[in-house]
Design a protein that fits this description.
There is one protein chain. The chain is mainly alpha-helical and 111 residues long. It has one domain. It has five helices and no strands. The protein has helices at 6-16, 26-37, 43-55, 61-68, 80-110. α2 runs antiparallel to α3 (43-55). Keywords: Membrane, Metal-binding, Zinc, Zinc-finger.
Length: 111
């Protein structure tokens, strides 16, 4: 981190934070926090980190937003697609739960 090699940090996390190898996934959360506390535009790197955070569902979206808000140099466009996908996925889960509840209510009423 002292060399300020942002791309190198991402590559390091790719090697050490691979979920397929039982790695420590918190590395991605730590890296997002680091990038968001830099105080400079590191949009490209943040997008890469979000890809892995989303793939392995490492952080809830609210934590991503709170972490992201620490860097005034990053715009919402950096996380817009990530947030849209997360909200869409959550909406689908809510709808599935609603359908299941209705189904169980019918079963209970028939008993």
């Amino acid at each position: 981190m002292q060399a300020h090699d942002l791309e190198g940090l991402v590559e390091c996390c790719k090697r050490l934070g691979d979920s397929g190898k039982g790695a420590d996934l918190s590395l991605w959360a730590d890296l997002l926090k680091y990038f968001c506390e830099l105080g400079e535009d590191c949009s490209k790197e943040v997008k890469q980190v979000l890809t892995y955070i989303e793939k392995d569902d490492i952080l809830p979206p609210i934590i991503v937003l709170q972490t992201f808000s620490r860097n005034p140099c990053l715009t919402l466009s950096v996380i817009k697609d990530y947030m849209a996908r997360k909200l869409e996925r959550e909406s689908k889960l809510i709808e599935e739960d609603r359908v299941a509840i209705e189904k169980y209510q019918v079963v209970i009423q028939m008993s």
